[in-house]
Amino acid sequence: MKNIVRSLEDIVNLAPILKAAFPYDVSIAVCDTEKFIAYFPGVSIDLGIRAGQIILADEPLYHALKNDEFSKANVPKDYYGYEFVGTVLPVHEENGRVCGAICIQVRRQTELREIADQISVSLNQANARIGHVAEGSGLLADFSQKLLLQSETTAESVKKSDEVLTVLRKVADQTNLLGINAAIEAAHAGDKGRGFDVVAKEIRKFSKETEQSAQRIRDTLGEIQAAMKQISQSIHQIASVGQEQAASTNEISSFIEEIRTMSGQLNQFAQKL
Predict the structure, then answer these.
(1) What is the 3-class SS of 163-228, one letter each residue?
(2) pLDDT (tens digit, 9 = 90+) per residue, 108-141?
(3) Cβ proximity of 248 and 105 under 8 Å
(4) Among the listed residues 106, 100, 84, the one whose alpha carbon sits nearest the alpha carbon of residue 19
(5) Where is the domain boundary, 108, 136, 164?
(6) Is residue 46 in some structural domain?
(7) Residue 181, domain CATH
(8) Rounded mean pLDDT, 80-86
(9) Coiled-coil region(s) at which residues (predicted)?
(10) Based on the structure, what is the number of domains in the chain?
(11) Which of 23, 116, 162, 249 is the most exposed place for a label (fewest CB within 10 A)?
(12) Structural domain for 186, as ranges
């Protein structure tokens, strides 16, 4: 189908109206078969075309004019610093001969795609790190449980040691009683019981030292029990925090996955712009 125009000047006059009618920012160029005769840059896209600028043989516009065919091409940002889509529509005189073309350029939203891609990359990295944190939280919770079991086992061992001390104290009491009885018997024996009295005194001395040692051990075990109780409470808190942290990281991972999905949708939308 031929696009018949009375003159290229009509297109030049119509171009600002067409530009204003577009729902997004565009630039419009009008040319004859050799050069540009008018250019209307957009706000975000300005190719710097000047009236009278010659059309080069290696440009898509040149081939579209020569072959009398509609052309649409993606121009990479290497040329103008940003990517855009350019269309060329040849127009004809009444005799059907190509007399020029109207060219429209629309900037592609590559920045939007790049942002979406960067978001996706950042989310992947964040998700990987959160995965490590979640794994560490799980290990921390497991380790805390093991520590808790060990502390409980230690507390039980301390309790058993306390039972041993109770028996030891009874032995000390009995030994002390035995020493007293021995001293009484030595006194009854007179001179013949002096040697036995020395033994009785040593027995009582040993009993007293045993009682003192048992008391010191009991005090130490009491301190250990108090410390183990505090340790047990701390381990409970650590385990609780670890479980909460693991749950929180799982929720964050879910949020990140949702954002990553939206990022993919944003990228697909940007591809259409």
Answers:
(1) HHHHHHHHHHHHHHHHHHHHHHHHHHHHHHHHHHHHHHHHHHHHHHHHHHHHHHHHHHHHHHHHHH
(2) 765 556 666 677 677 777 767 666 666 666 666 6
(3) no
(4) 106
(5) 108
(6) yes
(7) 1.10.287.950
(8) 84
(9) none
(10) 2
(11) 23
(12) 113-272
